[in-house]
């Protein structure tokens, strides 16, 4: 039995080693080539790709990135704009991407990778993806048949959010974990149906948010009911924007969008996914992210993407 266990362990280590070598060889083969990326999304894709250009440059990769983003937009809104532009190409409502339609962006040269995502508020509601994901997929393939279409898995809100994603027309998820689990199922359902790879940003966020050592813990000592400007609660290891003061000195919470740490983690995931390369040794770190947390985020990104490929 001991010899058998030893054999299995040796075989496992050998297999992991081979996978790492293949992963590295692919990365080296692709280094120096220009990658053309079209991002169809909203503020969450904007968050996740904020630091991607810096990381790509540091890693020695040539990246051309175009955005087709509408803040807060679900898949339906992107498809609605396509239909408007098809009826009347001059209608401004059909050109929501800085005065351009999706067709105009798709026809702007060859794209290597084109990403899509659902709005976070609908991400855990599978029915909300249809028929818009089908329509967009077919529309993209019509003009960019050689491009790889991939799905960007968005993340769950912070545990102290006042609401979470819809799971049906009438219900919302009851917790950050339920939102992650059900949105993950929805994204994987779509990916399987269309045979698409997934950028696992949502999984990486959850890995950090559920880690006993690194997860965000709400400040139990802060007096939220009688908060005094400009005091703010402690929000160590938060991946989300969190609390801030408005111009009218009212305390507000954004538990949805990514802060610098969350944007950094998202960019690390995208970097590793796009270039098939671990981001662990990259040096760039946003100014408000501690070195130890940044190292953990790089490690998380590396493990999350490597385990998916």
Question: What does this protein structure show overall?
Answer:
InterPro entries: DUF4886, SGNH_hydro_sf. This is DUF4886 domain-containing protein. It holds the Pfam family DUF4886. The protein is of the alpha/beta class and 309 residues long. It has one domain (33-216, 259-306): SGNH hydrolase (Rossmann fold, 3-Layer(aba) Sandwich), CATH 3.40.50. The protein is 43% helix and 13% strand. It contains ten helices and seven strands. The strands form two sheets. It has a five-stranded parallel sheet, with helices on both faces. Helix 4 (75-87) packs across helix 6 (132-143), helix 8 packs across helix 10 and helix 9 packs parallel to helix 10. It starts with a helix and ends with a helix. Mean pLDDT is 92; it is low at 11-25.
């Amino acid at each position: 039995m001991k010899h058998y266990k030893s054999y299995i362990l040796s075989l496992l280590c050998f297999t992991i080693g081979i996978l790492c070598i293949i992963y590295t060889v692919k990365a080296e083969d692709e280094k120096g080539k220009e990658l053309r990326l079209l991002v169809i999304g909203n503020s969450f894709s904007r968050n996740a790709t904020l630091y991607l250009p810096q990381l790509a440059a540091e890693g020695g990769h040539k990246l051309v990135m175009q955005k087709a983003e509408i803040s807060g937009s679900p898949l339906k809104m992107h498809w609605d704009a396509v239909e408007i532009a098809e009826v009347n190409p001059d209608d401004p409502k059909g050109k929501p991407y800085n005065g351009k339609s999706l067709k105009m962006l798709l026809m702007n040269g060859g794209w290597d990778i084109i990403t899509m995502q659902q709005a976070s508020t609908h991400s855990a509601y599978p029915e909300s993806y249809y028929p818009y994901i089908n329509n967009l997929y077919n529309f993209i393939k019509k003009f960019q048949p050689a491009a790889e279409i991939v799905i960007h898995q968005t993340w769950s809100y912070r545990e102290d959010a006042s609401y979470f994603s819809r799971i049906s027309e009438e219900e919302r998820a009851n917790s950050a974990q339920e939102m992650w689990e059900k949105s993950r199922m929805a994204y994987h359902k779509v990916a399987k149906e269309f045979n698409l790879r997934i950028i696992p940003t949502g999984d990486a966020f959850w890995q950090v948010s559920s880690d006993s050592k690194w997860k965000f813990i709400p400040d139990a000592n802060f007096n939220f009911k009688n908060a005094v400007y400009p005091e703010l609660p402690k929000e160590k290891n938060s991946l989300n924007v969190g609390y801030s003061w408005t111009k009218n000195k009212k305390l507000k919470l954004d538990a949805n969008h990514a802060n610098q740490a969350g944007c950094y983690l998202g960019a690390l995931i995208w970097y590793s996914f796009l270039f098939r390369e671990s981001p662990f040794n990259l040096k760039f770190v946003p100014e408000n992210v501690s070195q130890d947390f940044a190292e953990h985020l790089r490690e998380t990104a590396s493990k999350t993407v490597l385990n998916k490929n």
